[in-house]
Amino acid sequence: MNTKELDNEYIAHTYGRFDVVLKNGKGSTLYDENGKKYIDFGSGIGVTAFGIGDEEWKNAVEEQLDKLQHVSNLYYTAPCAELAKLLCKKSGMKKVFFANSGAEANEGAIKFARKYSFDKYGERRSTIISLENSFHGRTITTLAATGQDSFHTVFGPFTPGFKYCPANDIDTLNKMATDDVCAIMFECVQGEGGINNLDYAFVKAIEKICNDKDILMVVDEVQTGNGRTGKYFAYQNFDVTPDIVSTAKGMAGGLPMGAVLFGEKVKDTATAGSHGSTFGGNPICAAGACSIVSRIDDAFLKEVNRKSEYIKSYLSKVKGVKSISGMGLMLGIETDKDAKDAANECLKKGLLVLTAKNKIRLLPALNISQAELDEGLKILKEVIEK
Length: 386
Ligand SMILES: *Cc1c(COP(=O)(O)O)cnc(C)c1O
Known about the structure:
The protein is built from 12 helices and 17 strands. Strands 4-12-11-10-7-5-6 form a 7-stranded mixed beta sheet, with helices on both faces. Helix 4 (about 80-90) runs parallel beside helix 9 (about 285-295) and helix 10 packs parallel to helix 12. Helix 6 links the parallel strand 5 (about 125-130) and strand 6. The protein is an alpha/beta fold. The chain binds pyridoxal-5'-phosphate (PLP). The site of pyridoxal-5'-phosphate (PLP) has 15 residues, from helix 5.
């Protein structure tokens, strides 16, 4: 059996895969099993932040592989300690808990938002407001946090204690912020929900409610974090400092890793024994992450923003483009075409793009070369204009 046949026979079909077997690559150029070339505008859903086979990342991972791969959180190891310091320096957060995925990071964020409130106010203050059209993960609790009815059908009963506010609706948010609420949880740019930017004024309104009522601001930076939106974290575009931040996707350059970051107010909430993870902070993932996180500095972010402007300016002149949303290198393009059809046409012509709801979604590697960018945009233009 070939790869597609094996996969179709033995993999549980939770994914609608694109019709291609990817085999190898370098940077933002990938090849399938027949040697056909693809420009990658998806970076594995925003995960390979520095592309495929980045030399510095590879060296960092290989060096750590030669030392040790795992010892458990019963012992101190250098890579996760170094990474935690880097993340705090980049974000203004104070402490870090390491997990293995975005959903797990959000589970941690939700647990500690509730614990902060429980420790201070006791029971009955456990409600979390999240936003309509949000996406926070696939576990039972993060599905409950996800503000989309289509995720709340067959897997119930779900974790109680979530209510959903329409994004950018300040009046409704004010009405929802009742005495039982411990946290407001949101993505600054909704990813899976269709690349929807939150308004600056809305995020500032969240900040005010949180300050007035000792409600925690919990920002899901799983997709938007680690340079994706042109700042280290997307909330830095809105001049706020959250109490809790979750992140994952791009952080370790393709290795599975998530993190929960705690601000000043909640930095002592994560007490001994209150949470844990066998693999969390794994030295290999942490070493890879250090090589990624340390290189996302101001000069690098300036380039991310330059490429963002370049793509927006290029696509705004393409016939059939109705709107462009998003920030940095997280962009959603609404066109006359069905987004899935457009993505499949791109694939045929040698370009990998993602979709989010009715939009073509671009999440290229942050270090994509100008040549790869131009080559991919040319294909995208052809497909949109056709
Ligand atoms: C991808 C994503 C998640 C879930 O991450 P997993 O690693 O798949 O568990 C959660 N929140 C947001 C905003 C995401 O984009």
